[in-house]
Design brief:
Length: about 240
């Protein structure tokens, strides 16, 4: 395997350094740097940038950094370090913006449903036995309290860029006995997130996965590559 490219190396170092730094801090850094819904009082504009550099645990960090190394080096070699960093940062920020738009809408819609149920049923005991009401309030509480962190939104932008640059390249994984053509790998990956986003099903149990952020990063990555391919002056 070729040596790690410079921008990927710097990004991995930043992510690992912030993770280690957060482990020794006397407070939870994700409460300041993780991305919250705008309805939460902890929400801040800078979180669109800082959230992509924070991770919840060793496995979360390891998976994202492995993906960044595996896919990012190829994309940096294809587009150059400057464009790679632009792609990575914009995909990460864009994924957060799309997450807050999609989940913010879902949160507002959920609040409206809960308010309507409360208006129709003023009896507290009846509300405690209302399955829809209890399910909605638990879900809204979780959405409100949960901060989104991780490089996966930016990574999805990188993966889409790789699939668009080398659509017929074959991607190999140790867990699979055969390689996958890049364009089909990207299509499958995005399709899985879209299905999980639309159905609300989570194969990861209690762990909340921001599928809308993944889809947002993929969309931004696609738009950036299309811009470079068709709209950017050839001498740029």
């Amino acid at each position: 395997m070729n040596n790690m490219t410079p921008a990927v190396r710097i990004l991995i170092v930043i992510n690992i350094a912030l993770f280690l730094f957060s482990r020794v801090m006397p407070y939870d850094m994700t409460e300041l740097l993780g991305l919250y819904l705008p309805a939460n009082e902890k929400y801040a504009v800078w979180q669109y940038l800082t959230g992509m550099f924070m991770h919840h645990g060793v496995m979360h960090l390891t998976l994202n950094m492995a993906g960044l190394f595996f896919f990012g080096c190829a994309v940096e070699r294809a587009f150059g370090s400057k464009r790679f960093v632009i792609l990575y940062i914009l995909a990460g920020i864009g994924s957060g913006v799309i997450y807050t738009l999609v989940e913010g809408y879902e949160y507002s819609k959920g609040l409206a449903i809960v308010s309507a149920i409360e208006a129709l049923e003023s009896n507290v005991q009846a509300l405690s036995g209302n399955y829809t009401y209890q399910t909605m309030t638990r879900q809204l509480s979780r959405m409100y309290r949960t901060e989104v962190v991780g490089a996966s939104g930016a990574l999805y932008g990188v993966i889409v860029a790789l699939g668009m640059r080398y659509p017929n390249a074959k991607v190999s994984f140790r867990l699979l006995p055969f390689p996958i053509v890049a364009k089909y790998f990207v299509l499958g990956l995005v399709s899985i997130d879209l299905i999980l986003q639309l159905t609300g099903f989570s194969p990861f149990g209690r762990f909340m996965v921001a599928h809308s952020a993944h889809l947002g990063g993929a969309l931004i990555g696609m738009l950036i590559v299309l811009y470079w391919r068709y709209l950017l002056p050839k001498h740029s």
